[in-house]
User: Which sequence fits this backbone?
């Protein structure tokens, strides 16, 4: 009881100090509550990141002596034709995938933004692939695309579009598009949900006003819905671009980077340098370069979308 | 009220502090060496594909009550990285049981205890699979020994042989005859293919043995001056033979890389759809009666050879209990019970005389026989030059076999690329 009285007395005497103390205590409590997350971030993100930076400036073999290498790893990366090829491939994949994926997600969001049992079933059905691991999905795709017996080849044969013997993953172009299709199917659910939430938040009266003005469905979609969900769209775009540039699993499982290295992505090449050739320092430098590219792209996208959205704030 | 707030806050502080310390503690635990009295506890690492060591250890502990063994399974893909981390952290295990192909790399990096004297004193060293001892040896010093082995062999479907008018007990004697028999079997129709390697056509496990059988090799002697000999005439002939087999349509479509989602090739083989197969014996586990086996894979001249796979064991430098670790290693290499457990788990014991003695039928005897003609590519750059699906051997040999590139020119190119990778690998050795 004594304990309960003391602060009250002090608060009466010096109200400002008490409030400041209370605020300080609240801040301390807040810090305390986030401390487990903070510890995890430091141990599993910050420390590895710092280590990565250090490694990228060192000659770091698997078992031998570590020695400082200055900018050698970076210089080597800029002269490495295979890395450039892998990077271009990853960029190409991103350029092909992201617009397609966002278009499909947008269309799906339009389909599932309403209410009702059927709509919610379709929504779940579209979202389910997101929950499956990429490796498992890639193996499924591999079985479905088997020459002769895979269900997709059987379907194409019965439609008279092929002889059913297409070996999808032995040709760079075919495997590229097969994996684009797989990735769209697998990943479109996340953007769909984000865009759908944005669409559902658009007030009904805006549509009513547009209708009174004589706007048809397409016009309402283009001039009302899309501008109002631009923020969600920006988020989806940034997530899609950075995620796609780091593409790894599906190519690792389905093509192993082949044939003849034609489908090796930037991350696969980095992985091979680090864990097949054990040039850990060089692998770290490649990772740093990738990080810088993704960071630059994200900043660029944010700026571009913010510039476009200027009138929204005024 | 306030005091209860404080108590709650105190509880939160305690929970948070405990969470933080336990996270940190988990990062650096695991060394129980230095127990006073009682049995010594050996920390042993095994790769996750090893299914026999647990049972062997149980039998070992029974025979050696003063030594307890704590086995940790380590993901095979992360084995070397994890071992490297343990060296940097100064807490290595007492014994490592690892993929035999990594033996040259670990020995070259100077991280293993020299066990030459102990190995020389083994009563059965002369009976241990020669290639297994050789790959653990560097500059005449022994650093690791084989503990569980398996090889690649030729198999054939007896029923299909009969249907094609061939003798189900007589295998083809050389590569030319493999093709001849495969053509006869494929002529049976009904989606039957004549020949398959099930995975990795023209690669190390089933391709190299044909080249080795004809006296070829893929590397010069291990060491800083090592070069690749991918364009060795016997290796070029081997790749040319596979190119011909593929172009003749005698192989399963799934033999082409990136077409087999897992085990379709072996399922076809087990379903009786393939005549002759170059692969490992464990593919046929449970169906051995339906297939014939040879003691290796033939070359062009009729000799047999095999790729020696399996596990090697070594004592890392810095092991807290090297003597007890050797006791376990010695037991694994020499003991009859260890050999029996190996056999039950689908491995062959490293002591081939003992393994032969334990072999009860032709199938098992041929498995042992394949190890006697077993070989291994001995290089610290094995993964980069041969195993990497985008590495020089895989890319260039596959370009020849499946895309019709000239084998001689392809393998010359591969050899040049490999030489660079080997010299890169040695430049990293401290």
Assistant:
């Amino acid at each position: 009881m004594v304990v309960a009285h003391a602060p009250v007395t002090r608060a009466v005497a010096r109200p400002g100090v008490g409030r400041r103390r209370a605020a300080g205590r609240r801040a301390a409590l807040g810090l305390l509550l986030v401390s487990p997350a903070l510890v995890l971030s430091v141990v599993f993100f910050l420390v590895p990141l710092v280590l990565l930076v250090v490694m990228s400036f060192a000659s770091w073999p698997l078992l031998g002596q570590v020695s400082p290498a200055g900018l050698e790893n970076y210089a080597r990366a800029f002269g490495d034709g295979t890395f450039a090829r892998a990077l271009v491939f990853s960029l190409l994949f991103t350029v092909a995938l992201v617009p397609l994926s966002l278009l499909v997600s947008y269309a799906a969001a339009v389909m599932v933004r309403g209410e009702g049992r059927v709509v919610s079933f379709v929504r779940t059905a579209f979202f389910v692939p997101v929950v499956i691991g990429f490796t498992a999905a890639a193996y499924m795709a591999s079985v479905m695309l088997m020459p002769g017996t895979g269900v997709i080849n059987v379907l194409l044969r019965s439609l008279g579009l092929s002889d059913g013997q297409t070996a999808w993953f032995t040709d760079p172009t075919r495997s590229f598009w097969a994996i684009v299709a797989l990735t769209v199917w697998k990943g479109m659910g996340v953007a769909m949900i984000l865009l759908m939430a944005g669409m559902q938040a658009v007030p009904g009266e805006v549509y009513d006003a547009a209708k009174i003005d004589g706007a048809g469905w397409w016009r309402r979609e283009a001039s009302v819905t899309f501008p109002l969900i631009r923020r969600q769209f920006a988020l989806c775009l940034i997530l899609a671009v950075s995620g796609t540039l780091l593409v790894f699993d599906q190519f690792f499982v389905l093509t192993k980077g082949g044939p003849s290295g034609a489908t090796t992505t930037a991350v696969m090449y980095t992985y091979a340098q680090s864990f097949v050739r054990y040039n850990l320092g060089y692998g770290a430098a490649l990772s740093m370069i990738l990080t810088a590219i993704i960071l630059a792209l994200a900043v660029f996208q944010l700026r571009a979308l913010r510039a476009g959205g200027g009138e929204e704030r005024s | 009220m306030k005091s209860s707030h404080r108590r709650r806050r105190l509880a939160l502080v305690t929970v948070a502090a405990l969470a933080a310390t336990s996270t940190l503690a988990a990062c650096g635990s695991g060394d129980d060496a230095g127990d006073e009295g009682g049995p010594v506890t050996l920390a042993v690492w095994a790769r996750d594909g090893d299914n026999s060591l647990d049972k062997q250890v149980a039998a070992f502990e029974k025979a050696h009550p003063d030594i307890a063994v704590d086995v940790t399974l380590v993901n095979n893909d992360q084995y070397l990285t994890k071992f490297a981390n343990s060296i940097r952290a100064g807490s290595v295990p007492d014994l490592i049981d690892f993929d035999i192909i990594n033996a040259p790399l670990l020995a070259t990096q100077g991280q293993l205890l020299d066990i030459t004297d102990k190995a020389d004193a083994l009563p059965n060293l002369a009976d241990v699979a020669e290639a297994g001892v050789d790959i653990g040896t560097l500059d005449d010093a022994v650093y690791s020994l084989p503990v569980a082995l398996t090889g690649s062999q030729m198999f054939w479907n007896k029923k299909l042989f009969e249907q094609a008018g061939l003798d189900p007990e007589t295998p083809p004697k050389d590569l030319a005859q493999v093709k001849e028999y495969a053509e006869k079997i494929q002529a049976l129709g009904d989606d039957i293919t004549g020949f398959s390697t099930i995975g990795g056509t023209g690669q190390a496990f089933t391709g190299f043995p044909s080249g080795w059988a004809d006296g070829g090799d893929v590397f010069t002697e291990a060491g800083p001056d090592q070069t690749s000999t991918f364009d060795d005439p016997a290796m070029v002939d081997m790749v040319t033979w596979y190119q011909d087999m593929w172009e003749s349509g005698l192989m399963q479509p799934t033999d082409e890389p990136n077409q087999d989602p897992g085990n379709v090739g072996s399922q076809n083989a087990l379903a009786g759809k393939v005549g002759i197969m170059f692969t490992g014996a464990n593919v046929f586990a449970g169906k051995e009666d339906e297939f014939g086996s040879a003691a290796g894979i033939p070359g062009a001249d009729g000799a047999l050879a095999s790729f020696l796979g399996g596990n090697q064991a070594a004592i890392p430098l810095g092991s807290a209990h090297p003597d007890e670790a050797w006791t376990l290693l010695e037991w694994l290499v020499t003991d009859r019970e260890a050999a029996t457990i190996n056999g039950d788990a689908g491995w062959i014991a490293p002591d081939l005389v003992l393994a032969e003695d334990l072999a009860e039928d032709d199938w098992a005897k041929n498995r042992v026989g394949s190890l006697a003609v077993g070989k291994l590519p001995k290089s610290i750059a094995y993964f980069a030059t041969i195993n990497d699906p985008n590495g020089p051997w895989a890319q260039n040999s596959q370009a020849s076999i499946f895309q019709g590139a000239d084998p001689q020119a392809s393998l010359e190119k591969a050899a040049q690329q490999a030489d660079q990778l080997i010299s890169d690998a040695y430049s990293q050795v401290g």
User: Anything to note?
Assistant: Chain A touches chain B at residues 3-4, 7, 29, 32-33, 35-36, 39-40, 43, 59, 61-65, 139, 142-143, 146-149, 165, 167, 169-170, 175, 254-261, 264, 272, 275-279 (CB under 8 Å). The first strand of chain A starts at residue 58 and ends at 59. Residues 2-56 of chain A form one domain.
